[in-house]
From TrEMBL:
InterPro entries: FAD-dep_OxRdtase, FAD/NAD-bd_sf. Gene3D superfamilies: D-Amino Acid Oxidase, subunit A, domain 2 (3.30.9.10), FAD/NAD(P)-binding domain (3.50.50.60). Its EC number is 1.5.3.19. It comes from Ascidiaceihabitans donghaensis. Belongs to the DadA oxidoreductase family. Pfam families: DAO. One of its GO terms (cellular component) is plasma membrane. The gene is abo_3. The keyword Oxidoreductase applies. Residues 22-416 form the FAD dependent oxidoreductase domain. The keyword GTP-binding does not apply. It is an enzyme of class 1 (oxidoreductase). Keywords: Oxidoreductase. It comes from the Bacteria. This is 4-methylaminobutanoate oxidase (Formaldehyde-forming).
Length: 447
């Protein structure tokens, strides 16, 4: 994958690792970076450890949408807070992260979809989010030149966008200036425990003593937890994204139609993807988690296709180690950066469908394309919780493809869970125990 090189990504964090901190955050994606940042701004001594580079996985590979629209009602207040925090964070960095309030629009094919959107609007109103329905005529005003008619749309003017690959390293820069010790190329192999609670982490560069660990490891979280004896029914799906060459200006906003979602990019092109197209590599975790995912698979909100086996070294590949100790390399060192290949046919389809929707684009050609592994939970909302069975461990994972936009809000929540501060949100929906079935591998730490 070729990313645009920015000032932010040229900064590297070689270490060394500290010997003792108040909190270790595992994983420097948007969730881990924001959690570390807010903890440091609250006066805590924090180490943020990343096995590869900052935001080298899904946090740089997502669509760049900062979306409140259509969110699960329990996530919505956190995304509304994130919307405010994004503006504050953009003002704390001298790097242009491409933050633009251009709105997000869902184009509806059917009256049934419009009814679903209408039924969601009261949630937006409750949290002061400015979502509204658009008629077909209004759609043409927002997206001039659109070639076909729709049943209507859901539109949220206050939704935003930013350039993920520039943004998350820029946020890491703010965190580093706030005192976070950021270390790249440093895998955490496992946890240390004393008297049934967290006492440190074993990294490839030595042990760090700490009493608080936040696991924000995206697609790797469930593998890490399994080795700790904690079951998390999390899977990851491959999502293909493309960046076009510069094309005519359309609108400042991002939108999703049935076959193609698009966002204007800072470089004059568009990021293209398809919301209803995700691919699951079938491995042992997929079989294990199947019963918990059955409802989701029946409704199929992901438009999931199945691929026979994951590439070597992927979290749910058949040959990936499930058990290891701290004295030898872990699977996280064997694959520093999860870099799936994009689906070539989907790339062709995206160009065709975008050009058909907006004929003024002419020939749509791609500057680059990539894929990412989206970590997802059976109910498509994240886990943000302390692990009751292992005091000192907090989990922030399973953001199900929506983690970029909610990132700063989730970071505030996770920092609050660590410090015991009032997070001012009802977190019941995000509890780890919602997956509990009482089996031996179920949320209890192995000792
Ligand atoms: N996988 C969807 C990414 C963007 C969003 O819905 O916020």
């Amino acid at each position: 994958m070729k990313f645009p090189i920015s000032e932010a990504t040229l900064v590297t964090y070689p270490g060394p690792v500290p010997t003792e901190v108040d909190v270790v955050v595992i994983g420097a994606g948007v969730i881990g970076v924001c959690t570390a940042l807010f903890l440091a701004q609250d006066g805590h001594k924090v180490a943020l450890l990343e096995k590869g580079r900052i935001a080298c996985e899904q946090s740089s590979r997502n669509w760049g949408w900062i979306r409140q629209q259509g969110r699960d009602p329990d996530e919505l207040p956190i995304t509304a807070e994130a919307n405010r925090l994004w503006r504050e964070l953009a003002a704390q960095t001298n790097i242009d992260i491409g933050l633009v309030q251009g709105g997000v629009t869902y184009l509806a094919e059917t009256a049934e979809e419009m009814e679903t959107y209408a039924n969601w609007l009261p949630h937006a109103k409750t949290h002061g989010v400015d979502s509204r329905l658009l008629s077909d005529a209004e759609i043409a005003q927002v997206f001039p030149g659109i070639s076909r008619r729709f049943a209507g749309a859901l539109h949220t003017p206050s939704d935003m966008r930013a350039e993920p690959w520039v943004t998350v390293p820029a946020l890491a820069g703010i965190a580093a200036r706030a005192g976070v010790t950021v270390v790249e190329n440093c895998a955490v192999r496992c946890l240390d425990r004393e008297a049934g609670r967290v006492s440190g982490v074993v990294t490839e560069a030595g042990v760090i003593k700490t009493t608080q660990v936040v696991l924000a490891a995206g697609a790797w979280s469930s593998l890490f937890l399994r080795n700790e004896g904690i079951s998390l029914p999390q899977l990851s799906v491959r999502a293909t994204v493309a960046a076009t060459h510069p094309l005519p200006h359309l609108s400042q906003g991002a939108a999703a139609a049935e076959n193609v979602a698009f966002r204007p990019r800072s470089d004059g092109g568009y990021s293209l993807a398809a919301g209803g197209f995700h691919e699951l590599f079938v491995g042992p975790d997929a079989f294990r988690a199947l019963p918990k995912f059955l409802t989701q698979l029946k409704q199929d909100p992901f438009g999931t296709r199945f691929l026979p086996k994951a590439p070597k070294g992927f979290p749910d590949a058949w040959g990936t180690k499930r058990k290891w100790k701290g004295d030898a390399p872990s699977p996280f060192e064997e694959m520093r950066v999860l870099n799936p290949l994009p689906n070539q046919k989907k790339l062709t389809d995206l160009c065709r469908d975008f050009a058909a929707l907006f004929p003024q684009m002419g020939d749509v050609t791609l500057k680059t394309a990539w894929a990412g592994m989206i970590d997802t939970m059976p109910d498509v909302v994240p886990v943000m919780d302390r692990v009751d069975a292992l005091p000192g461990l907090t989990i922030g994972t399973g953001f199900s493809g929506h983690g970029f936009g909610i990132g700063p809000g989730a970071g505030k929540v996770l920092a609050g869970l660590v410090t015991g501060a009032d997070v001012a949100h009802d977190l019941t929906r995000f509890r780890l125990s919602r997956f509990s079935d009482g089996s031996p591998m179920d949320i209890g730490p192995s000792v």
